[in-house]
Amino acid sequence: MSSAAHPDSAASAVHPPSAETIARAHVDAAKYEAMYKASITDSAGFWGEQGKRIDWIKPYTQVRDVDFTLGQVKINWYADGTLNVAANCIDRHLATRADQTAIIWEPDDPKDPAKHITYRELHAETCKMANVLKSLGVKKGDRVVIYLPMIPEAAYAMLACARIGAIHSVVFAGFSPDALGARVNGCDAKVVITSDGAPRGGRVTKLKDNVNQALLHDTTDVKCLIVRRTGQQIAFRQGLDYWYHEEAAKVPADCPAEEMNAEDPLFILYTSGSTGQPKGVVHTSGGYLVYAAMTHQITFDYHEGDIYWCTADVGWVTGHSYIVYGPLANGATTLMFEGVPTFPDASRFWQVCEKHKVTQFYTAPTAIRALMGQGTEWVTKCDLSSLRLLGTVGEPINPEAWNWYDSVVGKGKCPIVDTWWQTETGGHLITPLPGAHPTKPGAAQKPFFGVQPVVLEPTTGAEIEGNGVEGVLAIKDSWPGQMRTVWGDHDRFEKTYFSDYKGYYFSGDGCRRDKDGDYWITGRVDDVINVSGHRMGTAEVESALVAHAKVAEAAVVGYPHDIKGQGIYCYVTLMNGEEPSEDLRKELRNWVRTEIGPIASPDVIQWAPGLPKTRSGKIMRRILRKIAENDFGALGDTSTLADPSVVDDLIKNRSE
Ligand code: 6R9
């Protein structure tokens, strides 16, 4: 992949919004300036007003109570208010839009019929799911793991938890049994909701088998609720397993919505960091919903009657905020897609846009690059005249992909919002707003309301003022969608995000601020890699590799990959007496796939007789990254290495 354009290069052409876009937009340039200023100078006043976009059972009187000081970090928004998130996403729309479609479900196989679920039906289905969970003993505050394909039941399950005050933790259906088991244990879940199988791209993953394997050594009697999707055979655990359709038939289609405090956890979502195992990011109810709803409306310029489609999976935060919570809080019609962009062929996305007359389309650069490589005919043969706005998320977008998206998909008429945010941030933090900002290919551009990005000098942590500067990206003050803690480990929360740069939330990303004050995200500056928009800690892949009996040591780095953005490059040192071979390479690749999941599949495994280490034994990843990038001229200082000759060996073996 060519990296994001340098802000001063010719590729950074400016695309001003059209008069039509400006006229329709909720926010134009002048309004952005005024609102942004107000959001910073009077944060409590601004968010106090914005909080009213959702319904409260007991209105809040306190807006914010925030401290970013290491050792006493606390983040509270609307703390004395009470509400129910599911009631906000469903019940409050019933008076005005009960018969409007809430969810359009498009199945994996285009030959199967799509489903249109109205708000009235969403209410009944969510209530049934809520009552079934209750019948299995789930109470307010209990954790429920959701391990489902992209089927409507995934949304029902999330909303059902919210309705009864249970905390959901959605695990992407592509994760392995081990990864699932770790997450079930990590949050001490009472119930896992899954399906018999998950069809994707014409192939079926045996989800229930994975759950059985994940729970093999479980002694806490985790129950499992199984949605029938494929009809395949499954192994039932007597006394612990329940078919959803059988249980749902026994319960009423109405269930009261629990009164929740604004700061009660809504969900836990595990995400990768630079050290250790994935951490459970905790989002709470009130602030998260206000922020998801507001960003969904303004960034995507959502209006009544729009058909909005975000292609993410609910296993990631993008699916939480921009398939389920944001759109439904706004009473929107949100499209849920079970399949993949290239099945049955590379026209699938565009056919779905045509079929359902999609107005806003939100996807990841990796998908754009993959489809771009297939040629334009797949796009041009579809009628995309309904499209009004395009969005991207997950990784920096290279200008070639941006320009293709703009001209071939958007026909030069759709503004592109390149939204920078993270699992931790709950919603967009830096993004152009369609009617307010001329866009630049590859730039995430402007802070959303209330967001104060700063560029820090990486070593000293000093704020770098002015424009035309580069450093690491941190945020100065809180916003309502910010994560509150790491599940069960507030210390880790503080250490991870507030200890490197005192007084700031540190994002882990690098960035530039160009001459116009626009932000360009340059990618992670820690040991997190971004493979096809999926976040992965190199430490996770390393610990999977060293768990193999023949592996003595492993070091993993990212390297530029044309389609995936970054690929996974593994240096592996074998145990004494073990011989490298193609078979072993295959075996290790499969091993990592089973330990973590197919998304963690190594792209390159290089045999490394030794790894470059400092005298204190620290692996010098900087050098390994350069070798993986084939950039041998810029290895930097290798004199502190315990044995500098290992570097020559690695370079020699690089092309093998
Ligand atoms: C929402 C999401 C977060 C990391 C983040 C950054 C990268 C996301 C981006 C982007 C450049 C964008 N990232 N959006 N980089 N431009 N528009 O992706 O959350 O899975 O937690 O990943 O993704 O590196 O730090 P998450």
Give an overview in words.
- The chain is α/β, with parallel strands linked by helices and 656 residues long.
- Helix content is 30%, strand content 22%.
- Strands 5-4-17-16-18-19-20 form a seven-stranded mixed β-sheet, with helices on both faces.
- α2 (29-41) packs across α3 and α11 (286-299) crosses α12 (317-329).
- The longest helix is centred in the first third of the chain and has 17 residues, at 119-135.
- The chain is globular, with a radius of gyration of 24 Å.
- It binds ligand 6R9.
- Ligand 6R9 is lined by residues 271, 316-318, 393-396, 418-423, 444, 507-509, 521, 523-524, 530, 535.
What are the distinct ligands in this entry?
ligand 6R9
Structural class designation: alpha/beta
How many alpha or pi helices?
A: 21
Mean of residue pLDDT values: 94
Q: Which blocks of ≥5 consecutive residues have pLDDT under 50?
A: 1-5
End-to-end distance: 22 Å
Principal-axis shape: globular
| Radius of gyration from the alpha-carbon trace, in angstroms | 24 Å
Q: Please estimate the helix content.
A: 25-40%
Largest sheet: 7 strands, mixed
Estimate what percentage of residues fall within beta strands. Answer: 15-25%
The spatial strand order of the largest sheet comes to 5-4-17-16-18-19-20
**DSSP E strands, number:** 30
Layout of strands and helices, then pairs:
Elements: H1 19-24, H2 29-41, H3 43-50, E1 64-67, E2 74-77, E3 82-83, H4 85-89, H5 94-97, E4 101-106, E5 115-118, H6 119-135, E6 143-147, H7 152-164, E7 167-170, H8 177-186, E8 191-195, E9 198-200, E10 203-205, H9 207-214, E11 223-227, E12 241-243, H10 244-248, E13 260-261, E14 265-271, E15 279-284, H11 286-299, E16 307-310, H12 317-329, E17 333-337, H13 348-356, E18 360-363, H14 365-372, H15 377-380, E19 389-392, H16 399-409, E20 416-418, E21 453-456, E22 469-475, E23 485-486, H17 490-498, E24 505-513, E25 519-524, E26 528-531, E27 534-537, H18 538-546, E28 551-561, E29 565-574, H19 582-595, E30 604-607, H20 621-628, H21 645-653
Parallel strand pairs: 4-17, 6-7, 6-8, 8-11, 11-12, 16-17, 16-18, 18-19, 19-20, 29-30
Antiparallel strand pairs: 1-2, 3-13, 4-5, 9-10, 14-15, 15-23, 21-22, 22-24, 24-25, 26-27, 28-29
Helix pairs in contact: 2-3, 6-7, 8-9, 11-12, 14-16
This protein binds ligand 6R9.
Domain Acetyl-coenzyme A synthetase N-terminal: 32-89
Binding site for Mg(2+): 546, 548, 551
GO molecular function: acetate-CoA ligase activity; AMP binding; ATP binding; metal ion binding
